[in-house]
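Predict structure. Chain length: 304.
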Amino acid sequence: MLCIHERTKNILEADDFFLLECLSCRLIFLQKKNEPNSDQNIYANYYKEETGERFGNITEFVVKVFRFWRALKIFLLNPKGKKILDIGSGRGWMLYFLKKYFKYNVAVGTQISENAYRFSRDKLGLEIYNKDLLDLELNSAKFDIITLWHVLEHVPAPEAYIQRISELLENDGLILIEVPNFNSWSRILSKKRWLAMDPAHHVTFFTPDSLGDLLEKYNFKIKKINTFSLEYSAFTSTQSLLNLMVGTNNYFFQWLQNGRINFKIIFHLLLFIVLFPGCFIFNSALYFSRKGEIINIIAEKNVR
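Prediction complete.
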């Protein structure tokens, strides 16, 4: 049976939400006080129309560079792989690069945001499905690798996802998951002001142990685990510490998405520049620890 979280304890409370930890599976769930948890509607404007973008031109270029890095990482992880499913495929750039430069024959994605879905399908020519994984019918399709880059924290039933992924993977196929680490040092310091708390979108939180246990429950063998992300770690720590220092929630990150230059953002930018190098060095030193910002897990489907 999937965990139904009957035995929980309250571990954190804010003005508009609280966190419950399941005493059985040890996953952590965010409950809003005054409105339902996240659903597909909140992602309607998550990406911009036509372009599929979220940020300005410079930041979007950096995003594309990191998506190419993801494609290269997957190729190096499994050079013989030719079939990939990317759950929550964003703008679709990773799949696009895998097809164009790394000769993937089958590059399938899911994307519930209508704008990003249309961009991926119409502009990049990808096989994208505008459905949740649990509602997706792929007949007898099987994949060499399935990826979830910052997706699992958005879903209220992560165990159902892992079970479904196990069904879609080839024997000895790989799953790659990246999620925020609830045990990270900046989360412990900043508490409810942690950047990755994001109560508007995130509903489930993981530790390295709880995510590893969930995968092993469905016969996945952990091949590699660390808590560092070149893309996210230093930024998450810096924004979280900035939140703690100035008493705001993610003002700089929100400005990157749709803001204009003003005196307040100049102050935040200067503080960000001062904090970022130290956060990068500290997170790099925590690469193999359990206290870094981001959990990276690579696991293999273990056929018994």
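Summary: The CA atoms of residues 176 and 298 lie 5 Å apart.
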